[in-house]
Design a protein that fits this description.
Layout: E1 2-8, E2 10-11, E3 23-24, H1 30-43, E4 51-59, H2 67-80, E5 82-91, H3 100-108
Parallel strand pairs: 1-4, 2-3, 4-5
Helix pairs in contact: 1-2, 2-3
Amino acid sequence: MAGIYLHIPFCRQQCHYCDFYRVISQGDNSLFIDALKKELILRKDYLAGSDVSTVYFGGGTPSVLKAEETASFLDYIRNLFRVDSEAEITLEVNPDDVSLKYMKDLYKA
């Protein structure tokens, strides 16, 4: 069994208690997303032959990504790695970022 951790460093604001790496961003995150996908390709051989049982989106605040961006990551991971059909997929969220529609869109992913 293996797990994949994706650090999404973006935050809408800096929290005084947080000492994780973060970038205050409210703009276009597409360059970062493309770079992270390229890094996943470079890391593919590390998990060769392993089933991925967990995918964890941490941060930062991963919920600043659009639901379709997160879904795109998951599709990309499923195409690169053997992800268990019952894998645990976790996304850290800020309650201010999510709506019922956002949660439903993530659930579909």
